[in-house]
Structure formats: structure tokens, C-alpha cells
Design goal:
Blueprint lengths: L2 H53 L4 H82 L1
Amino acid sequence: MSQVDKLIDLAGRRSDEALIAWQQLKAQCTEAIRKLSLLKEYRERYRALMRDRLEAGMPATATMAYLEFIGQIDEVVLRQESDLGSIEQACERQWQALVAARREKRTYEILSERVAAREAEAALRRRHAEIDELIQRAAALR
């Protein structure tokens, strides 16, 4: 295995690892979005329930309890949105790392292809030189 092949293999492993890490972060992000959406839906249902009960004449103490609970949900929503932002940033950084790893691997592959092409050209030139030499020898014998 040539040095370039070893570099390609190493870059391929790094690319694979970066892909796995990105997929895991992407799954975390998707799950966080889903949970945040459910939390927001729950908050809206609780607000609607409070409105209905207010229209039915709910006492002030119960209203305060509803408002306090909705406030707690809002705090959790804010924390979750912040956490989601952090996960999204990490996901973006990991995506950039994946792109860089793939670019590095492709660079080594192109280098390997160029080396192989140069070696093939050199071998072809040697064969042409050998054929030319044989033709000259054959011509000299006539």
C-alpha cells in the first residue's frame, strides 16, 4: 500500500467518523425540535383550557395557578430553544468538518490518480523508446 493510499484510507476513516458524528447530532437536533414542538403545543392547549375556564367564571386563585404553570412552561421553552440553538450550531460545525474531511479525502484521491497517470505515461514512454530502439536495430540489420 503506497503512502497516498494510506492517506486516502486515513482520510476515509476520518470522513466516516465525521459522518457518524453529524448523523448523531442531526438526530439529536430533530428530536429536540420534535420535543420543543410538543411542549409548545402543550402550552397552547393549556392556554386554551385557561381561556375556556375563564369564560366559565374560574376564580382568581385558579387563574393565578394556570398563569404560573404557563410561565413555567414558557421558561422551559426558552431553555429548550437555547439548547436547540446550541445543538444546531454544533450540527453545523460538524457538517463543516464532514465537508472538510470529504474534501481532504478527494484531494488525496486526485493526487493518487495523478501519480498513477504520470506512472502510466512514463511506462508508455519507456515502451515507445524500447520499440523505437528495436525498430532502429532492425533497420540497421537490413
